[in-house]
Amino acid sequence: MNKAITAGLIFLFTLAVYQPAFAGPAEDRRAFVAYFESRFPDIPFAEYANGIYAIDQDARNQWIEIEEFPPYEFAVDQGESLWQEKFADGKGYSDCFNSSKAGVRQNYPRVDGLSGEVITLDMAINLCREQHGQKSFEFGSEEILALSAYIAFESRGNVFNIIVAEDDPQALAAYEEGKRFYYSKRGQLNLSCADCHVASAGQYVRADRLSSSLGHPTHFPVYRSKFGSMLSLHQRVAGCIRDVRAKPFDLQSPEYRNLEYFLTYMSNGLEANGPGARK
Amino acid sequence: MASTIKVKTKFLGDVVQVKSLMQHPMETGARKDPDNGFIIPAHHITQLIFTNNGKQVMVANFSTAVSKNPYFSFSFKGAKAGDTLIISWVDNIGEKGELETQLK
Fold first, then answer.
1. Is the domain covering A2-70+164-278 a CATH 1.10.760.10 domain?
2. Residue B23: closest CA among chain A residues belongs to which residue?
3. Which of A68, A74, A80, A227 is the best substitution to test chain B (most B C-beta atoms within 10 A)?
4. B23-65, pLDDT tens digit by residue?
5. How far, in whole angstroms, is CA A146 from its chain's centroid?
6. Which of A16, A118, A181, A225 can bridge A257 by disulfide, Cβ–Cβ 3.0-4.6 Å?
7. φ, ψ of residue A152 in degrees (nearest 5)
């Protein structure tokens, strides 16, 4: 409790100090997009949805070959049969998502009006299961990844339009938390997300090039050839955090959900193109 | 469960290009289970056979070096559209997978 109050005070204090420079989410996003536009003037905006393949031509050629026969198809098939399953009370996922089609990826994450918490797609799947008396899936499990892969697949082409209402203090707080997480240095290597994925986007880290943060969340979940399995956005973030020698948070922790909220808002206007195939 | 094999075929002139993807764990038998330290027993495809209209056009002997969910692609001559291509694999513990498709 004390911690929460202190955190709250620090937050308020930060707000107070930076008040003159305080920019709303819309200004943040314009600046974010403008940065990448000036940095990579040859890359059209829509291409950022393809992550590193917008920047790295060699990797792109390999990726196009892989996409001819996408390795995530098995997960999509599995997700489709899971989606069609009926719960014990005769309801299904389509009842929870208010849609007979599964194309809802672009609506997540969103802020829940009651709890003020950020609800990600993975969470929404589990909330749906709990509502209908089913056991929830473990985050990062094969089932939840397959379901989210199917939903992403069905949502292809839909444009992200995450709403951070300027008059909703809960949404703004979640957004600010996510933004702070994004720009905070962490780990023994003392790196923030932005150090690599904004300031050094496109440059080499060992043999690979850093992707741009614009477009990061659009293609998740992804099939990672490295692991031979699907991977959620939060697992990917945990991987990054481990790489800078910090201790990762739990999947679907408030920290990651707020970050996802911030990141996805930054990628508004891009198409949902998941599931992706990545090295 | 859908078939564990996916295949796409495409004619490039008189050559037909076959691309296939199989769902298989391809365990080498050298890996340990991170939870309990026990060795995960070997479980991998040993032979993959492509038969076009009853004639074997490709036989591949797989062992532990092939990765999980193997992707296999090759081309061959002398086929025509509508031919029946059968893809079948057998693994080291005797499990089998098979898929029949028409060339197009």
1. yes
2. A74
3. A74
4. 999 999 999 999 999 999 999 999 999 999 999 999 999 999 9
5. 16
6. A118
7. -60, -40
Q: Is the ipTM of this complex over 0.90?
A: no
The whole-angstrom separation of Cα A267 and Cα A31 is: 12
Mean pLDDT across A245-272: 96
Is A71 at the interface with chain B, CB within 8 A? yes
Cβ <8 Å between A71 and B71 = yes
Q: Could you identify the residue written with the tokens 């029949």?
A: B100
Check CB contact under 8 Å for A68 and B19: yes
Active-site residue flag, A96: no
**pLDDT exceeds cutoff 60 at A20:** no
Would the CB atoms of B21 and A69 count as touching at under 8 Å? yes
What is the DSSP code (8-state) at residue A195? I
The fold for domain A73-154 equals Cytochrome Bc1 Complex; Chain D, domain 2 (1.10.760)
pTM comes to: 0.83
Structure tokens at A145: 């990844």
User: A256, A178 in Cβ contact below 8 A?
Assistant: no
Classify strands B71-77 and B55-61 as parallel, antiparallel or unpaired: unpaired
C-alpha B44/C-alpha B23 separation (Å) is: 11
